[in-house]
Specification:
Distance between the termini: 18 Å
Radius of gyration: 21 Å
Largest sheet: 7 strands, antiparallel
Order of helices and strands: EHEEEEHEEEHHHEEEH
Helix content: 10-25%
Low-confidence stretches: none
Mean pLDDT: 93
Bound molecules: flavin-adenine dinucleotide
Shape: globular
Number of helices: 6
Number of strands: 11
Structural class: alpha+beta
């Protein structure tokens, strides 16, 4: 695991023991987090906008309508900050002060550039779809040229990035508070998927999507609690 920040801007100051700067950790969090937030300044105002993202190799893609203010601002060269977070649990300490959460998060700083090439745009859209529902790309109608034109795809290189990871139990067991008769521990939190629900407007006789069923089957169970 890499413990040296690639730049001063992404060096964690508080709880530096929770920092990681290696691509394996960073990529793993980006790939598992379902939602990212993009921060940028437009007309002197900061905005932080939730968005889908997809990592392919050394870049993170974001996409949206050609009319999106966020994408227009970013394409114009604004500095951006993309964050992705996975909420893993709640940490119940003996004192109010030490209560915490378990999480894995990533911050990527940099400038986004537009992907113009039709082939790469198509591949990026496939990456978005496949990370949401593996196998769904093959089941769906592919994008038309017009739809590709109406979609802007931007890429952010993963060069200046940091991860922060907190796992396990409260930190106060070895302090005076450890002697208090107050229960302490943590509650794991996992994302669980519900059974697919058919669109009421679906034509009669269309079987449930295999991709949706497979996703539901893998994600309906609470994953085993990770060791702390
Ligand atoms: C879901 C969640 C909830 C949190 N709630 C709180 C809270 O209530 N109060 C609080 O003080 N902190 C909270 N944190 C931690 C918070 O994200 C910062 O890590 C913290 O404020 C300390 O930042 P710093 O002063 O070390 O870094 P800063 O000086 O603010 O940042 C320097 C650099 O460190 C890196 N960095 C900082 N934080 C993170 C991170 N979480 N993940 C990846 N890279 C990071 C970035 O590259 C950043 O540019 C939370 C984190 C998560 C994931």
């Amino acid at each position: 695991m890499r413990h040296t920040a690639p730049s001063q801007r992404v060096r964690l100051t508080r709880s530096p023991e929770r920092a990681a700067y290696d691509r394996e950790t960073i990529d793993g969090i980006l790939d598992e987090a379902m939602v990212a937030h993009l921060g940028f300044v437009h007309d002197g105002h900061p905005f932080v906008v939730p968005t889908l993202h997809a990592r392919v190799g050394d870049v993170v893609y974001v996409h949206g309508s050609s009319a999106s203010r966020m994408l227009r601002t970013l394409v114009a060269g604004a500095q951006a900050c993309l964050t992705a977070t996975i909420f893993d649990g709640i940490v119940l300490s003996r004192s109010v002060y030490e209560h915490d959460i378990n999480y894995r998060s990533v911050v990527v700083l940099g400038q986004l550039t537009e992907v113009d090439d039709e082939k790469r745009k198509n591949a990026a859209l496939e990456a978005f779809m496949e990370r949401l529902v593996p196998g769904r790309w093959a089941e769906s109608r592919p994008p038309t040229r017009q739809e590709l034109k109406a979609t802007r795809i931007l890429q952010l290189p993963i060069e200046e990035a940091s991860a922060k990871v907190r796992t396990g139990h409260p930190d106060d067991a070895d302090s005076e508070d450890g002697l208090l008769g107050i229960w302490a521990g943590h509650i794991p939190v996992n994302l669980r998927y519900g059974e697919p629900i058919a669109d009421p407007a679906l034509r009669h006789g269309i079987p449930v999507s295999q991709a949706a069923t497979a996703l539901y089957r893998t994600r309906r169970q609470m994953p085993a609690v990770r060791p702390s």
